[in-house]
Amino acid sequence: MDVNRVKDEYEYKDKMIRYALAEASKTKEQFKEEEFFEYHIYTLQRPATIKENQTKQISLITADNIPVKKELLYHGARYYYYNQYGEAITNQKVGVFVEIANKKENNLGIPLPKGTVRVYKHDSEGSLQFIGEDSIDHTPKDEKVRIKLGDAFDVVGSRKQTDWKKIAYDTYEAGFEISLRNHKKEDIVVKVIEPIPGDWKILNSSHEYTKTEAFTAEFDIPVPKDKQTKLTYRVRMRF
Q1: 87 pLDDT band (50/70/90 cuts)?
Q2: 110 and 21 share a domain?
Q3: Which of 13, 29, 48, 73 lies at a C-alpha separation of 20 to 30 Å from 93?
């Protein structure tokens, strides 16, 4: 997997991250959170010593046994629908995400400040391995957080436009074929997200879809291990 890293002016170092994890285990409550006007204030509940020219990380929130939902996402793009492309448009990678519900029953349920979330996983020998990081916005309690870990190595997607034509001065039709190949040792489901512009209607499709937003169709595509699944659909658009 291509591990996702947050790109900013600082280069994170593993020894600093591991030090922060060790510090977090020393005390359960690091920061006190309270509401203030339309903001949230986080106050460190113990003294912290920072030596000259030292960079120190302090854990803001510590929570155990948080349920996560892993998703494999394959995104389209709006510009695919405006013109005739014919051949393969993209071999865009399939993204790997985890979704967390910021709820009390999931050992969270607290306002999460904007920042970087890093994800670790124990390997087969019990060692903690870094698997990705992403930026999140300020997130109230009871809302969901989606974190991109990186791009899948063993799951490949490709797309081609099978048809495109103008029906009227403001009406168009386009056909697409999306191939998803699974080289993993287990069956998977890939969520295909298609941002379709204008006033649209899918005329036919090989798989069921959900209109999640005004300009978004989503398909959940099962792909068996070591197999390929093709999603085909035709859409009529007015814009």
Answers
A1: low
A2: yes
A3: 13
